[in-house]
Amino acid sequence: MKQFFNVEFAADTTFLKLATDVTISMCRLAGFNDSTAKDISLAVDEAVTNTIKHAYHFDRTRRVTLQFTITETELTIDVRHNGKPISDTEIHLPDMEEYMKQYRKGGLGIVLMTRIMDSVDYGSIAGIHYCRLVKKRSQQHAH
Amino acid sequence: MIEWTENISGEQATLSLDGKITFENAGELRNRVKAILSEFPLKHLTFDLTGVRFVDSSGLGLLVSIKNTMVKRNGSFKINNVTETVRNIMNQTGLDKYFEI
């Protein structure tokens, strides 16, 4: 059985805290402990921030949608928008040793997301673009 | 929002920060550090993060760039009193080892 929860808000950093608070609540509902829930909320913070910065260029009139889907095996969080799509070719996972030696702006957000989540994917369906964050639930979490 | 106090003496400076270091204020903090480094002959810079509750990827990037800048000046950059939440964020990227926290 799937459980869904959607929340939509203006592309305004004012709402970042609300978005991460909702994420923590949904993670608890999916059976994750507080530590993992906070980690997942950090990944969502990065994905929403990227959307506001890169997809919408800080245009507060635009909207961001978070869709949470809980299945027997995983929690999926889609961060959706209809701004500038972020293509896979723009996503570079930096080598951390090189990154520290030769600092360049950006790049750590994707490191955080990929280390926290089991998968991070970008895509588009019918003009709606998404960053899909997936975290597997352990067996005892499944209802 | 981030606020800080500065204690500068000779070749050493400590910035005690309070709040969140995020993409919204990392630029402001970066500019202040640049100004301090151009004004004072610093060799050792410390960030006291006692009051810092959250650091996002932009904040982490700022810390890396400051450390690299200080190393290029043949100096040092340390971060002290890292809260559990911030330590966990740094662990996720391996930066805990880089900053020896």
**What's the CATH H-level homologous superfamily of chain A?**
Histidine kinase-like ATPase, C-terminal domain
Question: Strand pairing plus helix content of chain A: what structural class?
Answer: alpha+beta
The N- and C-terminal alpha carbons of chain A lie at a distance of 9 Å
C-alpha geometry of chain A: globular
Biggest interface and residues each? A-B, 23 and 19 residues
Relevant terms:
heterodimer, A: 143 residues, alpha+beta, Heat Shock Protein 90, five-stranded antiparallel β-sheet, 4 helices, B: 101 residues, alpha/beta, 44% helix, 35% strand
Molecular structure report:
The complex is a heterodimer of chains A (143) and B (101). Chain A is an alpha+beta fold and 143 residues long. Helix content of chain A is 36%, strand content 28%. Chain A is built from 4 helices and 5 strands. In chain A, strands 1-2-3-5-4 form a 5-stranded antiparallel β-sheet. The model of chain A has no long low-confidence stretch (mean pLDDT 90). By secondary structure, chain B is of the alpha/beta class. Chain B has one domain: Transcription Regulator spoIIAA, CATH 3.30.750.24. In chain B, helix 1 runs parallel beside helix 2. The chains are: A alpha+beta (143), B alpha/beta (101). At the A-B interface, helix 2, helix 3 and helix 4 of A face helix 2 and helix 3 of B.
Quick structural summary:
By secondary structure, chain A is α+β, with helices and mostly antiparallel strands. Chain A is 36% helix and 28% strand. Chain A has four helices and five strands, in the order E-H-H-E-E-H-H-E-E.
